[in-house]
Structures are given as structure tokens and as C-alpha cells.
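Anyone? Bumping this.
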Amino acid sequence: MKNLFVVAAALFNEKDQLLLAQRPAGKNLAGFWEFPGGKIEPDESPEDAIIRELSEELNITLSKTDLIPTTFISHTYEQFQLVMPLFVCKKWSGTIKCMENQQIDWVDLYDSRLFDSHPPAPADIRLINFLKKIYKIL
Amino acid sequence: MKNLFVVAAALFNEKDQLLLAQRPAGKNLAGFWEFPGGKIEPDESPEDAIIRELSEELNITLSKTDLIPTTFISHTYEQFQLVMPLFVCKKWSGTIKCMENQQIDWVDLYDSRLFDSHPPAPADIRLINFLKKIYKIL
């Protein structure tokens, strides 16, 4: 099965809230929440890809030095094997604005009802659980 | 620059010692220590790749369900961008035996002299430091 290399970011604001984005209607897994990000284009590093994606999606500018390589998942979907490294990022410039047709929300990583209020895309569940474990010691 | 997708494993034995492998003479970065692993071939998942690599290199059999996706690095070498997910693995079957021309050693992750006794390949330094932080809560 073909690997699909996608990169994602866990943005945390100054209140330690995490940004999740909701997949828009019409897309695969519409309505589920996920980390913002997107496909790593050929000859583009994961860092370059997440910087480009978050500029396009959220109108913000990330700096390479603020990207903390944190964890990854490898998840088997029907059509492809998703391989997704996740950067944690606590600093950016610009004001977040949704440039694409999606909702975003700032959530509390430790909210016990998080998976009910913001059902995550299947691949993102493990990432959120991993962040819960390690966020405080990052 | 071209991405090179490589997968690696942090094997821990029952004494919580970590296996490092020394790059053999003649290879790039000869003498430096690294996590065992290798290139992800096209249409091979990271899990399949690390299972194949550790069978070839160390003559052991890993099971997919024992592979814990833990962290990754993205490291710029002169010729390529190395993108390397790392699985932690504490169980395998078979007895470890070096099948290729390399030394291996079991080390203490928390040994303060580890980087002197076993100088890591540049890309592996961050992985070891990250493991030090999170190994006890994995």
C-alpha cells in the first residue's frame, strides 16, 4: 500500500490550549477534528511543508526554530498508509484566521470530554493521547 | 532537497538498556553510534520496514503490535533531508546476532558519559535526548 506522508502541527497558545481544526463538509472524514497540516510535497522538508500549510490554512507564519519534532503516527486507512510526523509549536507570527472552509477551536488537552466534544479523526486519537502524556515535560 | 525516509528502532531489554549499533568502517559516518534501522522502501509501511531491517541486521522478529511510535527527527545532511520516525520496542523473538559488519552495545540511556563512550550520529542525538525525557512515562 502506498505511503502518504503528511505533516501536522499541535499549536498551543499562551493558555496551553490546543488548536484543532474540523474537516469541512464534502471532504473525507467530514466533521472530525484533526491537527492542521497537510501533504509533504516532493523535495519539501516536513518543516517547509508545515510552514507552507499553516500559512495557507491559518494565515500565520511559523519559524523553523520554533518547531519541536514530537511524535508521529503510522495509520492504515483503506486507500493508503498515513505516515504523519507532528510538530509542537507554541510561537508564530500573525493572527490566526481560517483561510479554508473549516472551523477551528482551542481546546483543553486534559478535558475528559474532549473526544466527545471534538471527535478526532481516527489517526489523530493516538497523537492526542501521546501529547497528554508528554506535554508537561516537553 | 530530497527527503530520505528511514525508520529506526529503540530496542530496550529487560534491564531497560538500550541497543545502539556502530556504523561500520567504510560507511558514511563510520564509527558513530545509531539506532538500528534503514530505508523505507516504496509501498512499505514504516512498520514493515523496521521489521524487515531488524530481521536482516539483527536476526530478530518484531511484531507490529509491539512497535510503539514514539518520536521522529528531520535532519538536514549535505545530500538529503533525513526524516526518521523512531519506534520503541521492548519485545521481540529470537536472539540478537549481528548479521552485518557492525558492533552493537547495550547502553544505559541515563549514563551521563553516554555521548563520550558511544558518540551518536548527528541525527540521533536529539532522539536520545528525547527518549531520556519520556522513556519513564511511555
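Late reply, but here is one note on the structure posted above: The beta strands of chain A are 3-11, 18-22, 33-34, 37-39, 68-76, 81-89, 104-107.
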